[in-house]
Amino acid sequence: MSRPPLGPLTRLIVAAVEERKGVDFDEILGRSRRARIVYARQLAYWALDYAGVSASEAGRQLDRDHSTVLSGLAKIHRRIRTEEDVVADVVAIGQSLGWLPTDSSPTSDPAGIERG
What we know:
CATH architecture: Orthogonal Bundle
Shape: globular
Radius of gyration: 13 Å
Helix content: 55-70%
CATH superfamily: DnaA protein, C-terminal DNA-binding domain
Order of helices and strands: HHHHHH
Structural class: mainly alpha
Distance between the termini: 34 Å
CATH topology: Chromosomal Replication Initiator Protein Dnaa, Chain: A
CATH class: Mainly Alpha
Number of domains: 1
Largest sheet: none
Number of helices: 6
């Protein structure tokens, strides 16, 4: 079964994650369960969620079940609250997409990078 074509927003997000984490575009969209690839995928879930994309639509775009997206979102949001390196990654991705000001510090209020 072939993957549906990515929308422009999803393509931009995956490219931003790829650039930040050095994980290949196809690996992010692939099926690997290696920790660094799963983490990159979760960063993409975060960015799609931050942009207001539903878990169902994110799942369609990334060829995942919506429950997989929701699970990944829960994990990345927990890590945002407790791990400075995750906050730094999220801030950098948000900045590269033009969503967060470039003067945002990775130690700024992490709740400010969570949607909702």
